Amino acid sequence: MVKIVTEQKVIDKPSGVEGFPLRRWNIQLFMLNEHGEEVPASVYSKATYHLHESFGKRATQAITSPPFKIQEEGWGEFDMQIVLTAMEKGGDTTLSHDLNFSENRYETKHAVTFKNPKPALLERLRESGPVPGDENGKKRTGEESAKKKKRGDKGIDMDQLAENLQRLQEDDLLQVVQMVHDHKSPDSYTKNDVDAGEFHVDLYTLPDGLIRMLWDFSSERLPTHK
Question: pTM to 2 decimals?
Fold first, then answer.
């Protein structure tokens, strides 16, 4: 869960627009742990703010460290887009945020999801609370995750494997799910979201033999792979 905290106040400077006082505002980003407490949003490496075009060269600003604080001055309210870039090439998440001046301080919360997060990202996510699917495997330390990655990476492009699996047809994917169920180890991370019709797996936590099976299977089904 991501929390956006917005603060604003009127400042003693002319706005240039009658009836609209100039304000100084700032935005900060946090994660919420399982107890609803603020923790640093360190799962993200960058937050990119897309402001109103009237900000000119400052309309797009990238902040690279928590709490990803941006501060500006202006007289108008507007909707902005905030693009959060996850660490370890975990992908981008775009949040819409309504900058308004009805309160001096207000908070908004957004549920976010991560698709096939890598071990380092999983470990960072666990700093804010249990990760869905932990009940299907042990919580791993960073050192254990690194070992898993090293073992599973021998001779196989893990990013390419993930891409191959996403390109498979539905019937083939059902076989992949069955293979994972049959050959995973006790500390493999899997999550079967029946309601959403999705199956999640952390490839780096699978045994080497299963990784090889998945690689051979997906390569056979996708003959164009080189």
Answer: 0.59
